[in-house]
Amino acid sequence: MTSRSGRLNSNGKVAVICAGVAAGMIGLAYASVPLYSLFCSVTGYGGTTQRVAAPSHEVLDRMVTVRFDSNVAPGLDWEFTPAVTSMKLHIGENALAIYRATNHSKVPVVGTATFNVTPEQAGGFFNKIQCFCFTEQRLEPGETVDMPVSFYVDPAIVNDVDGAFIRTITLSYTFYPVAKPSTSAALNPSAPVPAKPPPNG
C-alpha cells in the first residue's frame, strides 16, 4: 500500500513537471513571434516583403502595376491614405510611394503600421529600401505627415514559377494604436516629413 507521504511526493513531482511544461509552452509562444517574423521576412511567406540596403541595378522592359492600399484599425482616430492609388513600373525600377497620415484626435497619438503584399507569391520579390512600417509614429493633434516607401520589384520574379505570371501587386498597410509607446516615440515627434500645404490658387 502506498503511504500518504509517498502519494504527496508523487503529486508534487507531477505538479512540478506540469508547471515546467506550461512555462516552456509560454516561452515558445513568445519566441515564435520573432521567429515567425524572421521566417516571413526571409522567405516572403504570407506576403511579407523583403528589406534591402541598396536600389536595383537592373531594370527590365516588362512592366508591373503596383497598387497601394491603406487601413486604420479601430481605436485610432487617424486618416491614412496613399498619395496615389497605383503606379505602373518597369520591373527593377526604383520607385517612391507616399502615404499620408493625419491625427484627427485632440491628443498626441502613437501608431505603428503592419504590411503585406498580394498575391503572396510576390512577397519574396517586393524589395523595400526605406519604409515606415513597424516604426512607432507620433502625431500631434491635427498633425499631418507624409511617410515614404522606397521600393522595387526584384527582376528575379520573371524567372519564378509563380511570379512569372504576376502583373499586378498590391502593397497594403494597416495602422494600429500603440498603447505603450517607446520612450523615444512618446517624447519626440515622428521622423516622417510634415505634409506640405497645397499651393494657393
Looking at this protein, list some descriptive labels:
201 residues, Ctag/Cox11 (Pfam 04442), alpha+beta, 6-stranded mixed beta sheet
Mind explaining what this structure looks like?
This protein is of the alpha+beta class and 201 residues long. The chain folds into 2 domains: 1-43; 50-194, Ctag/Cox11 (Pfam 04442), CATH 2.60.370. Helices cover 22% and strands 35% of the residues. The chain has 2 helices and 11 strands. It has helices spanning 4-43, 183-187; strands spanning 50-51, 63-72, 78-82, 86-90, 95-103, 109-118, 126-130, 137-139, 144-153, 168-177, 193-194. Strands 1, 3, 5, 7, 9 and 11 form a 6-stranded mixed beta sheet that branches. The longest helix has 40 residues, at 4-43. The protein is globular and about 50 Å long. The protein starts with a helix and ends in a 7-residue tail after the last strand. Mean pLDDT is 78; it is low at 21-47, 186-191 and 197-201.
